Amino acid sequence: MSIFELSHITNVFGIFGLLQVVSLLGLLLLLLKSAQYYLHRQWLIKSLQQFPPAPPPQWLFGNTLKDQDLQQILLCVEKFPSTYVRWLWGNHARVVIYDPDYMKVILGRSDPKVVRSYSFFAPWIGYGLLLLNGKKWFQHRRMLTPAFHYDILKPYVGIMVDSVHVMLDKWEQLVDQDCPLEIYQDISLMTMETMMKCAFSYQGSVQLEENSKSYIKAVEDLTHLIYLRVRNGFHQNNTIYSLSSNGRSFYHACQIAHKHTERVIRMRKAQLQNEAELEKFRKKKRLDFLDILLFAQTEDGKSLSDEDVRAEMDTFMFEGHNTTASGISWIFYALATHPEHQQRCREEVKSILGNGTSVTLNHLDQMPYTTMCIKEALRLYPPIPGASRELSSPVTFPDGCSLPKGFLVTLSFYGLHHNPRLRPNAEVFDPSRFAPGAPRQTHAFLPFSAGTRNCIGKQFTMNELKVAVALTLLRFELLPDPTRVPILVSKIVLKSKNGIYLHTKKLK
After folding, report:
1. Where is heme annotated to bind (predicted)?
2. 64 half-sphere exposure, CB direction, 13 A CA radius
């Protein structure tokens, strides 16, 4: 046998041996992962024995029903008093809570948001108030709180009024067409304009600019894609997701959103290069949101990085216009489907505002019945249906049930607001629930969450809701479209799968 043949045989056996070793290592790794999976699942099952699984989970795909999260929650709220277990896929499980006492315990702690899920937002909105945890979150929260001081909010009412009038003028031109109007898109543009002008001193007309529509579309796409990713076990890995069609669409939409906020920052920085504009800034008693970001300094004397500024900008653009647009849209729908309450609100608004040409912050405090209707609509249709926390330490609830450190908890504000044990006829629109003197239970109504991480812009948002409702009712009667009943779906923000269509009848 030649040396060449011997060498060839040796190489073959060498490769064969190497393949055997690789196969053996692969098998051992598979067995190790399987054992880890089994042990972790047993730990989960043992930890969750006190909580009901509903419906019974399938071992791989869990018990999450496609596009039926809210319907599933309502069924579970009817059946189980405080909580249930929701299996997503494999070994991913969460305890869903909708009981005020449970809410009070979790929101009274300082548990971080679930890193795995909320990190999906990071390429879009960066690490601003929504995603930050710990010391840096506290620093940013304390730094930005002055932007929502009463004296800052007071002149914003006039800006809100102007933005709403632009939207209503557009609607007035469409009245003669006698066809239902999909209101969410126009309301999104209106809330975006309000946010841009109030928080970022923007001078343009957002509702009339084409690039604003592309931003609105990008935000819609981003929230939908994040919603899909959270539910897809194969898309949890960043590399795999970036190679998928959804991942490519997501990162493209991120670029559109970033271009928008970066343009606003550039424009504001350019304005502040002007001496006259800088002098105006120095004379301001209180700064708007973007001013605070641009001139803020951390505890060590450093200015915020461009990345931090954009993160807070993107966060507030998302939370400040998207969630508010959801709130206003559902309030309009609730009033359209309950004409007796709509008319009573209209009469109250007329008695306070007259023709609505002049609206002040004091006027907004004089609308008790309208405020009751707004709150009842927010109860039925909370703009943010839920939030999540990852337990940083073990927790024991008032009824004795407990969870270990590291467990994931979903706070279902939608389930809480629809819990029949808290309110009789929970599915009925009844503003008297919020009448002065009506019995209240703490942590039973949380459209803006609660605790240290409650919505920093709560009062700003409530003012905007009141302005939009008041001015709209002065000019239009809102009527439902019986052929297009909204189908509620939770896609980060509460939306309708088939749009929110209303008839707008001009009042004489």
Report:
1. 455
2. 23
CATH code (residue 173): 1.10.630.10
Which two tokens mark 442? 């703490």
Tokens of residue 388, six digits: 């999540």
Please check whether residue 212 is in contact with residue 192, taking contact to mean a CB–CB distance below 8 angstroms.
yes
**Residue 243 and residue 278: Cα distance in Å, rounded?**
46
Q: Which H or E run includes 460? A: helix 458-475
Task: Tell me the pTM.
Answer: 0.89
pLDDT digits (tens, 9 = 90+) for 277-327: 667 666 666 677 888 888 776 666 677 888 888 898 899 888 888 899 999
Is 455 one of the annotated binding-site residues? yes
- In angstroms, the CA 469 to CA 473 distance is 6
pLDDT of residue 473: 97
Q: Are 499 and 185 spatial neighbours (Cβ–Cβ below 8 Å)?
A: no
The domain of 136 spans 57-506
**DSSP state for residue 175 in the 8-state scheme:** G
Q: Judge whether 242 lies within some domain.
A: yes
Q: Let me know if residue 169 belongs to a domain.
A: yes
Give residue-wise pLDDT tens across range 433-458: 999 989 889 999 999 999 988 999 99
* Residue 41 domain-assigned (yes or no): no
Residue 18 domain flag = no
Residue 232, CA distances (Å) to 89, 92, 229, 390 in order: 8, 11, 5, 20
For the stretch 175-201, pLDDT in tens is 766 789 999 999 999 999 999 888 887
CB 149 within 8 A of CB 460: no
Question: Whose structure tokens read 């008319």?
Answer: 343
472-475 long-range contacts, CB within 8 A, separation 24+: 472/164, 472/168, 472/332, 473/335, 473/342, 473/345, 473/346, 473/349, 474/346, 474/349, 474/350, 474/353, 474/355, 474/356, 474/507, 475/168, 475/172, 475/356, 475/506, 475/507
pLDDT at 56: 59
Please check whether residue 423 is in contact with residue 433, taking contact to mean a CB–CB distance below 8 angstroms: yes
- Report how many domains make up the chain: 1
